[in-house]
Each structure stands twice: as structure tokens, then as C-alpha cells.
Amino acid sequence: MGDPHLHETDPPALPQERSTWRKAQRLRQLEDDLRARPLSSRELAGLYGVPIRNIQRDLRALKDMGKGVEERAGRYSIPSRREALNAVEALTVHAAVRLLYHHAPAHNPHYIRALYKIAGNLPEATRRLLDDSVVVSTGRHSDDQALEVVARAWDERRVIRFDYKRPNGELERGNELCVYFVEVSRTNLAPYVIGLERQRRQAVRTFKLSRIVSPVTLRDSYSIPDSFNPRDHLTDAWGVIGGANPITVRVRFTPDAAYRVLEGGYPNASEPLIYPDGSVDLDIRAGADHTGLPRELLPWILSWGPRVEVLGPEPVRRHWLSELRAALLRVDPEFRSQAPDSGPTSP
Q1: Are both 20 and 101 inside the same structural domain?
Q2: Which InterPro entries does UniProt cross-reference here (predicted)?
């Protein structure tokens, strides 16, 4: 597919110019890495995928440039002054880095380096433990290219073209997107890109990053309109689907599940209604798709198994029941419903 950093119509550089540019880029990256955390020659060689002798030459080059490279116990670093964090601030940064690490679409080196930079102000002992918990994979991942193309296109306001794997397996070809916003879903820890898809539907759409195939950057530029506000698309979202057509789903939890519900932390949820028998009702607003179903909310509801009942609205209740029946038929083909749904039960 070529270098994702190059634009579709950019002229190729001469070999000598390209070699010089790559070396300058590598030295700048090496400087950033050494400011973020101490690293040995072997670790740097693995990170960059080059022999140790190349790393040693680069380290000497940085020293000759007066970058302040220091060596201690076989590890190199470039000390920089950082503002000290208090205990709560340090814990907050630690939690943010761990959360971002789990959200990573792939262990892309650029993404991981950003985490190290964010962690740079942590106390040394805490930072060392955090560094050890982050594993950098130097292998190429399928969605690395999409991550890099989307990031650069958003930064430069350039249109991208790509094919898209739909959830049903079909390949939607020839999307052209003006990237407006990137959101991480709270439900599946996956990044999504929101923007104007100008080629197929001429509308603001949401695409999952890992389903983007063969992305390229076009010469066309764009501006994000003042009328675009991410809240308009994310309000009432359970994950990343919100917008103008949210619905409210009422669910009832059995007493043995109620304690987990009462712990809270669920987005767009009402105050729980507690019944004398210990069961709990909860109203949850969630974005619906073109069929009127809250596709992101339904897996969460189904994950509660027999400990939850969908009370309404009726189309959501029917869909929930059909999913349960389909699951039972898969393991027990003899199962047949003997009576129509009698409606919501009373506590």
C-alpha cells in the first residue's frame, strides 16, 4: 500500500533527500523518546528495528548536537525539568495512561510514545512501574495505517478515501470523508471517526477505525463548519451512536442484580426506582439506528441474562425477547414458545 505518510499525489523524493529526511526524523524521534523515559541501546534497537550500532551512532549524533544525552547504568536519557504532581494528580495521570493504553486501536509506536510523554511528569518510581506495564509491539497491525492516515488528515484538514467493512461483512467502497472528530466508545474501547462522508451519502457519519480499509489521503482540503458540534452527535450515546433520535428504554433488574445497578456509573441513566422486593427499574436514554433499536445498548442488556427484563418501548422488548428465544433454540431445538408475550411483569 505504500507509505501512509505520503499523499496520493505527492511526488517521490530523490533517494538521497529521502535518506537525509528519514535520519533527521529518526533523530528527532530519538530525542523525544529519551526525554520521555530512560532506554538502553538494546531497547532502542528493538523499538526502531535497527542494529544496536546504528543506535550508538544516533546517540553520538545527539551528543554532538548538544542535546544533553546522559547515560546511567546502561540506559540513556535526556533530562528535562517537569512540574511535580501531587498524589491525586499522579494517580489521575496513571489512570488516564492505563485507560488510553487499553483504548489503543493497535500498539502503534506513535500512540505508545504519546502515552510515555503524558506519563513524563509522574514520580520516577511510579513512572517506571507504568512504563513496565506498557508493551510495545513492533509488528505491523492491520489498523495502524488507518490510525496514521486519519490522524494526519484530521491535523491537516485533508479528505481521506477508503473502503469500509460493514458489520454484516459487506465491503462499502469509495467513501470520501472530511474528518470532524475522533471518539473512543465507552462500551468497546474502540476509536471511531465522525465526519462528512461526501461521496456516498453526503451526510455526517460515524466509522469504526478498525473497519477502515486501504485509506489514502487526497489533495482536497476542507474546513470543519461552525455548525458542527460533537455534542449533537454524542449526546445520549451509549457508545458513539447518539444524535437526534434517542429513545428511552426501561429495564427491570432482579434483586440479586440490584446491588450492581445501584453502584451506578451507567451513562444517560435515571435515578433507580427501588421496589420493596429489592428489584430495581432504570430508564436509559440511548441512540437508536434507522430501525429504531438502540444497537449499542442491547448487548449490555443481554449480558445480564435472566437478571433483567426490558419493559419498554414495545419494539425493543420484542427484539430482546426474540434474541433470547433465538439463543435458546440454538441450544435446545425442541424449545417452542407456547404462549404469546403477556407483557411486562409487575414487581
Answers
A1: yes
A2: CBASS_pafABC_assoc_protein, WCX_dom, WYL_dom
How many independent structural domains does the chain possess? 3
Greater confidence (278 vs 344) lies with 278
Q: pLDDT, tens digit, for every residue of 143-188?
A: 567 888 998 899 999 999 999 998 888 999 999 999 999 888 877 7
Mean pLDDT computed over every residue of the chain: 81
CA distance 140 to 334: 48
Tell me which of 230, 254, 279 is where a domain ends: 230
Cis-peptide into 215, omega within 30 deg: no
Q: Specify whether 42 is located in the same domain as 69.
A: yes
Structural domain including 267 reads: 246-331
Task: Provide the pLDDT confidence category of residue 276 given band limits of 50, 70 and 90.
Answer: very high
**pLDDT of amino acid 319:** 96
Distance in angstroms (rounded) separating the CA atoms of residues 203 and 197: 6
Question: In the chain, what is the straight-line distance between the N-terminal and C-terminal CA atoms, in Å?
Answer: 60
Mean pLDDT, residues 273-285: 95
Indicate the residue among 104, 133, 162 that finishes a domain: 133
14 pLDDT tier (thresholds 50, 70, 90): low
